[in-house]
Amino acid sequence: MSNEIIVKGNPNIPYIALTFDDGPGRVTLYILDVLRKYGAKATFFCLGYCIDKNIVAQDYTGKYITGSEIIKRENDEGHLIAIHSYDHLALPGLTDEEILNNELSRTKNIITDLIGKTPVYFRPPYGSINDRVNNIAKALDLKIVLWNCRSADSSTEPGIILDGPLIYRYGPVDIYNNIMRNAGNGSIILCHDGHSGTYEANFGIVSALDRAIPELQQKGFNFVTVDDLLATGNYVIQD
Questions:
Q1: Rounded Cα–Cα distance for residues 239 and 237 (Å)
Q2: Is 195 assigned a catalytic role?
């Protein structure tokens, strides 16, 4: 029997799970500052490559911090660390051995060694999954979590210059509007703190969250980790 694919939490409880893919990246520190400002918790679906390459980011105090240190800070501040993959490849196009050893087990071990906790949640890159990926995740005791609400922070315009920088389609106001329009009880919101392990994330997510989180809290919503979201039961799975 295959793994359940979770897409939403309990629709009767005002919990929201902010989730961030493709990090750690340079924007992650600013996201963490916003989350701490409002006492919000989140879940980070991390790329093993971004931890291993040890990107160097600068926080608001001017201190430089590496990717592995960012993961430790996420954990120390009560956020949940989960698996995205190692290289951000579309997993259905890989062999079973590549999925198991190069992408999932490898990243699982990196995270476990860093924070002393074994991750139990997994989100495949692009949300791309088939029965083989599902069964390998199940064999590794990984629960699959997708989303039901997109911030659209990673949407890009067509490339103007070959191998040039990404041009993001949406700015802070658009991202804020996307979140506010779609968030509700049990929402799992897709955001990014990196882009495919190669590019910087859309920094517009920071000010969008700085506006959306307190407004949603005023409406009675609580921002929790995926773990806490699912602990209420009655979550929604993909058909």
A1: 6
A2: no
Task: Give CA separation, 73 vs 22, 63, 103, 181, 207, in Å.
Answer: 17, 14, 23, 31, 21
pLDDT (tens digit per residue) in 34-73: 999 999 999 999 999 999 876 667 777 777 888 899 999 9
Residue 1 predicted with pLDDT over 50: no
pLDDT digits (tens, 9 = 90+) for 77-135: 999 999 999 999 999 999 999 999 999 999 999 999 999 999 999 999 999 999 999 99
Residue 160 above 60 pLDDT?
no
- Of the candidates 21, 22, 153, 210, the residue annotated as catalytic is 21
Run of H or E residues at 145: strand 143-145
Number of structural domains (the chain) is 1
Query: In CATH, what number is assigned to the domain containing residue 150?
Result: 3.20.20.370
21 is catalytic: yes
Active-site pick, 79, 84, 88, 192: 192
Instruction: Write out the DSSP string of 8-47.
Output: E--TTS-EEEEEEEEES-TTHHHHHHHHHHHT--EEEEEE
Q: Which residues contact 161 (CB under 8 A, 6 or more apart)?
A: none
Average pLDDT of the residues of the chain = 92
Structural domain including 41 reads: 5-234
